[in-house]
Amino acid sequence: MATGGNAIRGTRVGSGPMGEQDHGYHADRIAISYWDGLGNETVRYFAAGLPEEEIPDIIDHPHSGLPAGRDKENPPEIAKAEPYKTHLAYVKERRTDEEAEQLLGDALAQLRERRGQG
């Protein structure tokens, strides 16, 4: 005879005398709608007795992944991703040698003043 596990045949593992009311399915809840920048709506449920300050104003929309707010007319803006910069673009942004020397001189002067070496 082959047996597997400790469960008694015909029962669910972990089941017990608890019903839905014991799991909180019948607790009073309020529905809050959230909208993302694309106009998608999602509804979240919170306990009815939860203070207003504990209900989040912004969540991540589960389908689009964008931030979603409670104001339908003014949802959070879609984040604008900056384009990838090449190494050459960073090199072009570097300061000239004269500017670098001036910045270094200013920083050294401030350090000397702080130490009192003036």
From TrEMBL:
Taxonomy, superkingdom: Bacteria
Entry function: Binds to RNA polymerase (RNAP), stimulating transcription from principal, but not alternative sigma factor promoters.
InterPro entries for the chain: RbpA_sf (IPR038638), RNApol-bd_RbpA (IPR025182)
UniProt-recorded name of the protein: RNA polymerase-binding protein RbpA
Residue segments, region Disordered: 1-23, 56-77
SUBUNIT field: Forms a complex with the RNAP catalytic core and with free principal sigma factors.
UniProt keyword annotation of Transcription present: yes
An example Gene Ontology biological process: positive regulation of DNA-templated transcription
Gene that encodes the chain: rbpA_2
Molecular functions (GO terms): bacterial-type RNA polymerase core enzyme binding
Biased composition (Basic and acidic residues): 58-77
Keyword Transcription regulation: yes
UniProt keyword terms in alphabetical order: Transcription, Transcription regulation
Family: Belongs to the RNA polymerase-binding protein RbpA family.
Organism: Microbacterium azadirachtae
